[in-house]
Amino acid sequence: MPLTSPRRSALVDQVIAQLRNQITSGEWPVGSRIPTEPELVELLGVARNTVREAVRALAHNGLLDIRQGSGTYVLATSELAGVMHRRFAGADPRHVAELRSTLESSGARLAAERRTDRDMAQLDALLARREEAWASGDAGLFVAADVALHMAVVAASHNEVLVELYADLGDLVAEWLRTDVGTVLEPSAHLDHARLIEAIRRGDGDAAAAEAAGYPYACLGGGRPEPRT
């Protein structure tokens, strides 16, 4: 005999689907606090227990973080991203940098081979937005613009598997960058990305890959690791 009636299960699933859509669409960005339980009850027109069950399910899947006394916050944009966040949140930053370097370098090389005119227009716009964010002095705005540019570079690879994998890692990367950059933009935090975009534009895969490979290590405050002999 089921613990809950099919009707109730279906209602909870519908609420989960609506809340998940708010997250995956970007309506509730990573790091933001979602509406309170009473607010969700009013917005959705369902019982408090239904809302609570849906929120707990999304927290269990890694999309939400329930903080007692503070509220519930968006932790990741997909279940896989949530798993990756929990698994690697405490990882050595250099190991995260190595993974980023591998994915971003591969993405940039493919982007140089496959980019379209539309891709280049998007990259140019995001590069300009990144520079504007830096000039504004707003660290949060700069991190968001930086992540968006790197996402667009990988997206220009037109490799759906690589794009999805990098997107799921993106939430962790953004959190790591927010911690690394801090609240004040220091000159050392600014890395010129114009050479990367130009390498992609002229179809130079080797140059694009080399540029992209070095950024994650530079964010750590040092150069690329010395090759082992």
List the helices and strands and how they pair.
Elements: H1 6-24, H2 37-44, H3 48-60, E1 64-67, E2 71-74, H4 79-88, H5 93-114, H6 117-136, H7 139-155, H8 160-181, H9 194-201, H10 205-219
Antiparallel strand pairs: 1-2
Helix pairs in contact: 1-3, 4-8, 5-7, 5-8, 5-9, 5-10, 6-7, 6-9, 7-8, 9-10
What general outline do the C-alpha atoms trace?
A: elongated
Structural class: mainly alpha
CATH class of the largest domain: Mainly Alpha
- The low-confidence runs, each spanning 5 or more residues with pLDDT under 50, are 1-6, 222-229
> Which radius of gyration do the C-alpha atoms yield?
20 Å
Name the beta content range.
under 5%
For the largest beta-sheet, the strand count, sense and barrel status come to: 2 strands, antiparallel
Keywords: DNA-binding, Transcription, Transcription regulation
GO molecular function: DNA binding; DNA-binding transcription factor activity
Protein name: GntR family transcriptional regulator
Domain HTH gntR-type: 9-77
Explain this structure to me?
- The protein has 229 residues and is mostly helical.
- It folds into two domains: 9-77, Orthogonal Bundle (Arc Repressor Mutant, subunit A); 81-220, GntR ligand-binding domain-like (Four Helix Bundle (Hemerythrin (Met), subunit A), Up-down Bundle).
- The protein contains ten helices and two strands, in the order αααββααααααα.
- It has helices at 6-24, 37-44, 48-60, 79-88, 93-114, 117-136, 139-155, 160-181, 194-201, 205-219; strands at residues 64-67, 71-74.
- A two-stranded antiparallel ribbon has the order 1-2.
- Helix 5 (93-114) packs antiparallel against helix 10 and helix 9 packs antiparallel against helix 10 (205-219).
- The longest helix is centred in the middle third of the chain and has 22 residues, at 93-114.
- It is elongated.
